[in-house]
Design brief:
transport; D-Maltodextrin-Binding Protein, domain 2; elongated; 33 helices; 3 domains; Proton glutamate symport protein; 8% strand; transmembrane; Na-dicarboxylate_symporter; alpha/beta; 11-stranded mixed beta sheet
Length: 743
Amino acid sequence: MDKVAKRWSRITSSQLILVGLILGLVVGLFFGEKVGWMEIIGEAVIMLMQMTIIPYILVSLIAGFGSLTKEHAKLLATKAGLVLLMIWAVALVTIFLTSLAFPSVEKASFFSTSVISPPPPPNLLPIYIPANPFKSLAEGSIPAVVVFAIALGVAFIRTENKMDVIAICRTTGKGLNRVTSYTLKTMPVGIFAITASAAGTMTIDELNNLQVFLLSFIGVGLLLTYIVLPNLIARLTPFHWREVEQMSRDALVTAFVTANVLIVLPVLEQGCKRLFKEREMDNPQTDQMVDVLIPIAFSFPNAGKLTVILFVLFTGWFVGSPIPLAEMPQLGITGMLSLFGAVNVAVPFLLDLSHLPADMYQLFLVGTVITSRLMSIAAVMHLVAFVLLSVCLIQGQWKPFNRSMLKFVAIAGIGLAMLVVPLRLFSGWLVNNGSETNPLVAMKSVGKVPEQVYAKLPEIYRGGKYSLTDVAQIKKRGVLRIGYQPGKVPFSYFNRSGDLVGLDISLSKRLADDLGVEVEFVPYEVANLNTLLAQGYFDIAISGLEMDADSIQKMRFTPPVLTLNLALVVLDHDRHAFKALTQKAREGNLVIAVSQHERLVREVREKHPKVEIVELDHERDFFSGKVQADALLISAEEGYAWTLFYPTFNVVIPKSKATPYPVGYAVAWQNDALHDYLDSWVEIQKVRGVLDQEYRFWILGEGAENTEPRWSIWRNVLKLDEDQRRDESNNDALSELHEQPTH
């Protein structure tokens, strides 16, 4: 027993953490989603470790600044500021160059409401100005706490009889450090729980969607943590790379598995002090500077946070609108300023600022299990570099700058090339060999009613026999006849299996089911719609029909089913498309294609007589190149759906003046009875949330892809859930007898 106890005592905290990490991976892969609940244990451990952090920052800053002399405070402000600017510049250049690893590819996405209603800009004042310090402490607003602590600490520099207060702060800090050392012993358990939950719940599909970004993000995170920043320290200070790595190893491992930098601040503080003592480079004020620099550095954007700018660059690549090299410096400065706040605020803000789809932020959230850990280790090394470089600069212990920087550039450049070239080749292989499938062609409309789809207008309906069909007559004949436009994505189109699907098709099947009849779909052309309805070729017309002052005089419409937004589709992914199109309009050589929107076309011709309008038989003529035009006037919702089929096109929406318009279902002008029924039916679907559900599925693409249960050894290899799945399948079959069809 004594030997076992001795061997156990020799295991370091880093080794225990790694053991917890490995065991968590094994348990997560074995049990899958069954261990998702273990995330609660991990969160409890992290919260336990966080309880000392904000008080520690407060007392350490007050004691650190309060014990400084006036001259030393000036040195700290000027020289530490220069070091911080240098680290920022090095990190941003590394991030921008890493974006070269993205291969050439063209992609598109579903419509997002963010393109017409951008998120408000982040409000940084409450984050950094402690109008009420107690509120900042209670809400955990660390930057505001830092500002308050620095202000009070600086005030103590010239305050007499301050040593009693400073002594209390130092004693309190030592006590908080001891509490932290106690809570660190629970970290292996927390790491095990967090890793098991993450490994058990993250799906392979989610990883596949992020593979190019994740590989690049992992690469830049490791490059900054183990090559660029340690190399900068080794070139400019007497410390060697191995010394820095050994000192920060425990903190790096802990930050990686917990995705939390706060809990390792005391560890970093003690490690930096120990390095100076072991090298005999310390003086009476070295410890004070370390105490002050670490909390200060934490409140500023670090290299780890700056890596999220890579996601903005990735988003531009992903949607086919890469950010030009000339705009990268502006993105870096803006990103650095926005990252004074939280990453969750900065990323949507940067996406909007770069005119990129804000819904891509959801893709970023999918990968946070990995990205947050890489950001954390890069942040740890940023803090180490900032403290060591700043203290050495203040104490006059830097190596010759020019020669050292040349060596740094050479080593960092080699490391960057060894990262970017293989990543670009491998990412290109992944993209070219991946299963790039348009989700729209696989989407289905679920319904229980029998249906008949006609490819052309059937002869048996000629003559207007059913022109005044009411609900009673529809039920009597047992068939609801719906007029639809073929290829009107995402409202009515044929999927990969040849089935007629779409938002309006799905709602039509619900309507037929509520009436207790079968449904027939009859094709029509917009130019003949009024005549076809009046003569009774079909009962109701669907397919995203625009409601305007002209159309409501010819047909009766239901209340608006949806509100769409006008936009332009252009061939190139050009964020400045409107500027270019405006210039063409002034020169008199702008050609706009349009297939509907008659009233708007007349207004455009009146206001811009030099603009040439080309009317299309079908939107596909523009995308296929059959009709040549500079832009297509279409709803943004339809435009995004079309770009899924033709990703070389881009949807452009003027943020300053969105132009919404309603769409609904139409019946013959004289068909009052059916119109009254439809009015009430549409209102019922709105109240029940059916319209919102269909909108999210067909327009936003939520749930468009079938999700399989998470793969695990327990479920897929040992087949231990077969009986449970069989019971669930039987229950689902019974419940379908009583439920409305859903996606």
